[in-house]
Amino acid sequence: MIEQESLSGTLLASQIDSTLLSATATPPEIVRLCREARTYEFASVCVNPVYVALAAENLGGSPVKVCTVIGFPLGANKTEVKVAEALRAIADGAQELDMVIALGYLKANDVLRVEADIRAVVEAAGDQAQVKVILETAELTDSEIRAGALAALRAGAQFVKTSTGFGKGGATLAAVRILRETVGDALGIKAAGGIRTRQEALDLLAAGATRIGTSAGATLVILERAQSFA
């Protein structure tokens, strides 16, 4: 866990997934997102699958990774569809996959089915992409959060993630703490959904998050080389 006092602007930037998942996002907006990510040296840009190839083209040669979403935003796609999405995204240049769990199965306590769904995407990704498992924690009880996180751990994912940003709630300190208590140091934790200020991001990192997903990345970091993008 990272202490707030140690987080410089540059370190915070390196833990941000700069996100643009709006249904109305345009190609020029994706290009601008990538340009901004290069300047601030964010961890990744997270875009819808239709824009993965465009993001990969614009981030070529930079350390910024291309992230996309799988089974988004409901998680209710068949497993084979999620696998097909993952394979196509990787072919287009994705290096990180944020997949939504089969939420209804978790609510029904069918954890084995949830785990199998995650494992199929993890196996499809192989060593070509990291998988972050979106639990949509605002929809879950504390025990369901723990069960979902453990399913992600057993299935071989690299991260658990709080939220899609399209549900009834976003990242909370309580959810992040439960996730960290559950998975220990075995998985990364991505806090996402409703994070709009630097202090919110710092608090979530102090609670145990290792990645911040936000559409307000540029406003969270303070860098000497900051500039505006027309």
Automatic annotation (TrEMBL):
Among Gene3D superfamilies, the record links this protein to: Aldolase class I
Q: Where in the cell is it found?
A: Cytoplasm
Q: Which UniProt keywords apply?
A: Cytoplasm, Lyase, Schiff base
Query: Where are the active-site residues found?
Result: 98 (proton donor/acceptor), 161 (schiff-base intermediate with acetaldehyde), 190 (proton donor/acceptor)
What biological-process GO terms show up in the record? 2-deoxyribose 1-phosphate catabolic process; carbohydrate catabolic process; deoxyribonucleotide catabolic process
Keyword Secreted present in the record's keywords: the answer is no
List the SMART domains: DeoC
Which pathway does it serve?
Carbohydrate degradation; 2-deoxy-D-ribose 1-phosphate degradation; D-glyceraldehyde 3-phosphate and acetaldehyde from 2-deoxy-alpha-D-ribose 1-phosphate: step 2/2
Question: Might you give the EC number(s) for this enzyme?
Answer: 4.1.2.4
MF (Gene Ontology): deoxyribose-phosphate aldolase activity
Q: Which HAMAP family match?
A: DeoC_type1
Regarding protein family, the annotation reads: Belongs to the DeoC/FbaB aldolase family. DeoC type 1 subfamily.
Q: Relate the protein's function as given in its record.
A: Catalyzes a reversible aldol reaction between acetaldehyde and D-glyceraldehyde 3-phosphate to generate 2-deoxy-D-ribose 5-phosphate.
- Can you say what this protein is called? Deoxyribose-phosphate aldolase
